[in-house]
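Session log. Operator J.P. requested a structure for one protein chain; no other inputs attached. Running the standard single-chain path with token output.
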Amino acid sequence: MRKEGNVVFEKSKAFAVRIIRFKQWLCAETKEYSLADQVLRSGTSIGANISEAVQAASRKDFINKLNIALKECSETEFWLSIMYDADIISREIYDSLHNDCIELYKLLLSIIKTTRNN
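Structure written below.
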């Protein structure tokens, strides 16, 4: 697995940038710092773990790193849903970030399943 031209890596990097900007907006507009920090950590960790998977020492290590990224996707989805349910973010913001998060989740799940089966 390479970083250059790697769809899941590129999408996770773009998502991390969106999450950073989202955190900045949350702090500036809603003064919500704790949840902003939580979603920043989990949302940027997805790409960091995918980046580590690219350098995995073995197939088992590769799958392990992608499983961690998958868990970070789930956590990010949780924080986004909490913010939406608490009326901190609009439906539009939630849907946009949530859709990207789910797309990453599905890509990671597919890669993990394919790697296990090969």
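Operator note: The chain has a mean pLDDT of 95.
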